[in-house]
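Students often ask why inverse folding is considered easier than folding. One informal answer: many sequences map to the same fold, so there is more than one right answer. In these notes we will look at a single instance of the problem. The structure comes first.
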């Protein structure tokens, strides 16, 4: 098992210790869970949501621009877009040509 050494300011270290203790976890297990949640796409939604919350509080979460879509897009426009998207060079050709 690998070890990782990090330098933290005293206040952050204190907050991490308090937070982990409040959850009934060791600092190591909590920090490991946080780092895993940040890089592991296979975690359950609750872990993902907690990570998203932390990123949002830190100002690191990209927020969608504009208003949410309330109506479905026009079917004809979607069909035209699909047809145009399918008219390019197939991925298999790009890979076989060494351009992928």
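Output (designed amino acids):
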């Amino acid at each position: 098992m690998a070890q990782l050494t990090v330098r933290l300011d005293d206040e952050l270290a204190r907050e991490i210790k308090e937070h982990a203790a409040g959850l009934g976890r060791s600092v190591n297990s909590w920090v490991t869970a946080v780092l895993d949640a940040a890089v592991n796409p296979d975690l359950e939604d609750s872990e993902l949501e907690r990570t998203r919350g932390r990123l949002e509080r830190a100002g690191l979460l990209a927020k969608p621009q504009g208003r949410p879509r309330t109506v479905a897009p026009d079917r004809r426009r979607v069909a035209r877009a699909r047809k145009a998207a399918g008219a390019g060079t197939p991925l298999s050709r790009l890979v076989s040509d060494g351009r992928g």
